C-alpha cells in the first residue's frame, strides 16, 4: 500500500529526531546554555562513553523502519481528529505499561544482556537517550507497535497518533537523559507527583535499579520501585543548586539524619 507524503514526512521526523535532540544537547553543553545551570551529577563523562554511545545510536532509527513496514502493509490508516486523539492516548498508555514491564524484565539476571549496553552509561550524556543495543530497540519497538497493530485489526488506528507518540517520546526521553534538571523548584508539589523529571531517571542510571517509569511515577509507586529519597535529591539539585558528587550519594530523611548525628556524638563521647 502506498505511503502518502504526510506519512513520509512523519517517518523522516521519527527517524532523525533522536539525533537532532542529541545535537541540541551537544550545543547546550558545549556552549554553556542557561538550561545547563542545575547540574545533577558533577562528574566527568569519558570520551570512550561518547564514542560507544555514538556507535549505538546508528541503529536508533529502527522504529521508523518498523512503522514504515506496518504502513506499507496497510496498518494505521484511519483518518480524522477523533481517531488521532484516540490513537495518541492509547499509544501513550500502552507505551508506559510496556516500557515499565519490559524495563523491569530487562533487569532480571537472565535478560539483562539486552539492557546492559544502555546501562554502561552511569552518567547521562547528550547521546545516552539514543544509546541502546540493537536487541533492546527491536524488542521495545516490536512490543509497542505489535500490540497496536493487533488493536488496529479490530479498531482502526491513526498513524499520526501512533507516530505522534514517538515524536513526543524522542523529545521527552532526550530531556530525561540530560544531566541537568529543567523543571521548576516546586515541581514535585504538583504535576511532579505524577510525572517524572530528569533527576528521576538519572537516579535509575547511577543506581542501576529503581525508578523504572518512562514518563510517570504511577507504576513505580504501585509496585514500590521508586527511590524514597528522590524528592529530597530533586530539592537539593533544583532548589539548592548543589549537584551530587558521587553516584551512590543518598539523602536520608531529616529525622534519620538527626538520629545519625546524635549517634555519632554519643559514640565520640
Describe the structure.
It is a single chain. The protein is mainly alpha-helical. It has one domain (5-268). The chain is built from 11 helices and no strands. The chain has helices at 5-30, 47-56, 62-72, 81-106, 112-119, 134-154, 159-176, 198-207, 218-222, 230-238, 254-268. Helix 1 (5-30) runs antiparallel to helix 3 (62-72) and helix 3 (62-72) packs parallel to helix 6. The protein is globular and about 60 Å long.
Summed up:
This protein is mostly helical and 269 residues long. Helices cover 59% and strands 0% of the residues. The protein has eleven helices and no strands.
Name the features.
0% strand; mainly alpha; 269 residues; 11 helices; disordered C terminus; globular
Topology, element by element:
Layout: H1 5-30, H2 47-56, H3 62-72, H4 81-106, H5 112-119, H6 134-154, H7 159-176, H8 198-207, H9 218-222, H10 230-238, H11 254-268
